[in-house]
């Protein structure tokens, strides 16, 4: 009897020690995720501060020009990167893609993206929308952005969450510093789209160079490799939603800016204000994806419904405040020049609910192994917006109404698809 007690004592101590180690590791991972989210929140704050500085020191017209260049760079990057950052992360982490190969891939795709973006710019030059220097600068900025994005995918697989979050937030912080310096020197400089494009080129090039230095410190070799087409095929599921989302913003700002530069600036400011309410959900999405992936279909549906309910309560409160006090909020935050466009802020505040639900929808589809369902809904939103713009829009406010209606129509389509599919954990319909 004594020997039995004596034998069990070390086992008990070992079990307690293992439990303590697991608890410590778990708390360390949670703290790491919280820290990474806080750092990424810095990037989101920097992006909003850029819009705030442009509004306060430059005015709607300056903000409109800046936002149009940013939207074009974002759209070109999303189109030309073809989902490679997600594919590079997956295959580097799996051991099928060496770090050195991913670095070469980033450089080659970045150069190819610059050439293709330049061809896009030549079309704009022929249509009289830009001069050749501006088109070349935007093309170079798009190429450097593609290069940075692919390096970011590689860094996620070999660096800590904290290091990845810092690298993710870096471009927004650099752009904030450059914009602040230019506005402090002479706010009229920001009216030059060529100079704005150079600003983005400098920010992404500097961050890309920093990423190369970090990857050289974590060199990893592999006896296996994957082809470019294999990478692109893997990344296409995440590519389509990104292209559609950036395309909607680019088309909207481009259409409005052709009619009024000030209206385009006010639209960009209103979109920035609405994005504040969506930022917490963007930061929580990786945690939701990780949680929902391990759940049964019924449990996943239950949590999705609860998440939608919580999001709807928050977004309805936010939208009600902005809609009801739009003039006061616009004057306080952005300045008196934006008050004539208070209706834009009121209408675009209604985007918060469908955009938040769309984010949850994307996470649900990805966790269930059906990311293509999310792609279908995003493509439908882009198609509905373009059709509405062509058929019904006559002035900037019509374009904003069309944007809001297309978002809600896309969410309605998503709910119909949700009712028709059961999201099995194996990725197959059951």
Q: Can you describe this structure in just a few lines?
A:
By secondary structure, the protein is mostly helical. 85% of the residues lie in helices and 0% in strands.
3D architecture notes:
By secondary structure, the protein is mostly helical. The chain has two domains: 20-237, no CATH class; 260-430, no CATH class. Helix content is 85%, strand content 0%. The chain has helices at residues 2-58, 60-80, 84-94, 99-126, 132-158, 161-185, 193-216, 228-259, 261-293, 297-324, 326-333, 342-348, 352-367, 371-392, 396-420. Helix 4 runs antiparallel to helix 5. It is globular, with a radius of gyration of 24 Å. The N and C termini lie far apart (54 Å). Mean pLDDT is 81; it is low at 1-6, 11-26 and 423-430. It is a multi-pass membrane protein. This is O-antigen/teichoic acid export membrane protein. One of its GO terms (cellular component) is plasma membrane.
